[in-house]
Amino acid sequence: MPRKNSFITLLTDFGSEDYFVSAMKGVIFSIAPGITVIDVTHSIPPQKIEPAAFTLLAAHRSFPRGTINVAVVDPGVGSSRRSILIAAGKQFFVGPDNGIFSYILDIYPSHKVFHLTNEKYFAKNVSNSFHGRDIFAPVAAWLSRGVTPKNFGKGLTDAVRLPTLQTQKDKKGRLVGRIIQVDHFGNCVTNITRKDLSEAQESLAALVMNGKQIRSFRKYFADAESNDNVFCIWGSAGFLEIAAQNESAANLLNVKTGEPLLIEFRK
Amino acid sequence: MPRKNSFITLLTDFGSEDYFVSAMKGVIFSIAPGITVIDVTHSIPPQKIEPAAFTLLAAHRSFPRGTINVAVVDPGVGSSRRSILIAAGKQFFVGPDNGIFSYILDIYPSHKVFHLTNEKYFAKNVSNSFHGRDIFAPVAAWLSRGVTPKNFGKGLTDAVRLPTLQTQKDKKGRLVGRIIQVDHFGNCVTNITRKDLSEAQESLAALVMNGKQIRSFRKYFADAESNDNVFCIWGSAGFLEIAAQNESAANLLNVKTGEPLLIEFRK
Amino acid sequence: MPRKNSFITLLTDFGSEDYFVSAMKGVIFSIAPGITVIDVTHSIPPQKIEPAAFTLLAAHRSFPRGTINVAVVDPGVGSSRRSILIAAGKQFFVGPDNGIFSYILDIYPSHKVFHLTNEKYFAKNVSNSFHGRDIFAPVAAWLSRGVTPKNFGKGLTDAVRLPTLQTQKDKKGRLVGRIIQVDHFGNCVTNITRKDLSEAQESLAALVMNGKQIRSFRKYFADAESNDNVFCIWGSAGFLEIAAQNESAANLLNVKTGEPLLIEFRK
To answer: N or C: at which end does chain C have fewer Cβ atoms within 10 angstroms?
Structure first.
């Protein structure tokens, strides 16, 4: 089993064409040469915090205990937005205080958040445009070497939060949800979980979105018993997804992240 | 020299924007924290098995002995398609039984194939949509830790096979081939090898494709002695390629993977 | 602190869809299994040497001492262009002699350059199209194992150089510069450094490009005190950049790499 703190993950909107990600890794390896770095993704749409928060939520469940997750989508870099370190779910999270760790804070109520202020663990010259390299990478690396969270700064309790992933119920008893991610295959991930919609309820449910109704629920993608081209399926991140047979459901339905939807129930 | 089984490679159609690849790595490192993971590519066109099979064939020749190659292009995930483990060419191959390992099976006739059925080495809850994370990643990790192949399941001999990469001869003595890959630079990789076309035969040969004839063979890309803009060149994977001077041959010739071609010989 | 030569970085124009990068890694790990490989980028525009040279310049400053940087953008592969190894700035650089290491040579005047000729450290069969796999990867791996630079070949002093990044002054006292990189966010990196333009001079300066004048200098991206949509900002690589509020400055100004610009000073 892994030593505690042997892994650092990186999740950014930096893309893959520039030197940015490698600079973060260079900083990490300069401080903690034995660490293993795992790229989550660097293809978050520029400056979009919600898809980053969702991707981190889905990814971190597979990481070893003690993993240090660095997430940098940071439109406020250089301004007064705070830098934070979170201990939650037996892992760590390092990045800007702009909501990117919001869903992590939601699911681990006993989290602890620290305000990164101890410049001893930052780069000597902190730029105004690249805290990923100058603050978050070195903090993560020092954390992996055993520096305790409170050494980086004082605790705080008012971290920035995004709207929750929780669904709501309207007056008619319908579930009110939304699309929280469109994946590489065009599958549309909703914020609906098994707590919202049990297996028993599926046969009575219809998903309504963008003027269309989807009644088909498949167990797996290649399910030949289903006739419907567009269908609901329980996705690998634990949320209900809308998919299409060998096609992009997002293209077919003309749907983007944020699209509202309803689950109606027949009586 | 590397310890046996120190390396796991990943080849998928998952793209780079989602959490999928990092989840597989998280699972691998949770079981085998000291392993090194090598990404082959995650940009296989969605659900396309042949390009995945070719890329794995070309890549694996450079990997250390004992490398465990996980390949996941898996339109049948969750259905009755089998999961397999192959021992071949002093390496291992783990993934769905849908033809993705076909060219590996072709070149190593003394391969052994095992049906992955022992759930002891799977995730506790196997999803219907992400066997990369729930079956193939943990099996590869346990294999790297020394679990022997037969512990994962019984042998089988009827693994799914794609059409072979072997060329054929038509009645007129012409070689009948096809484009098996278009690479990042627009070079068109054919299925023609040195066994089909010796160096001595080149001066008599013409490649005919899409109504065009290509007679020029270059030794290297920047060869100034050649006047032709489009030319044949022996590629780094051991196959004849069609390339263009500082341009995409695929765009210039309007050719895609699967395009048929002929090699004609002057008498 | 890292052992000397524990890290190899890779920078290419190979893209991410083919087997090329993984083949280089396979070769490296076959020779030096304990090494850590860092991807700088594989998304350099095909055959473009200047963006590769800039990216390497910006990235290498964050790498540990002793890092071996392999850079392969190589339109002349297989021709008479030389293969080189450079010792400079307490790091190493391996690749084709086509200018890709030009900016490294510029900033470390006490560099040493070696002509890679000792085939003992190459692949057994060197292809004419993939020296990244057959020459540069194995040389980097053997170097990491302690082979001394002069064992790879004789010194040389006439390495190919690109036009310098140095700005010039015109007769009117204006700085003459250019755009050297457009990054993932559309920020336009100029070749202007703090040596060209001090903080005191900023209030008197105007950047003129493509018929437009930019007078606004921001300290950081989210600076609310600035009214201008397009502004100058000192970037994380030490160069002046032109950026736009939540937009691509490159798109807004219709500017590409190579675009000339002037800095004018009010008296």
So the answer is: C
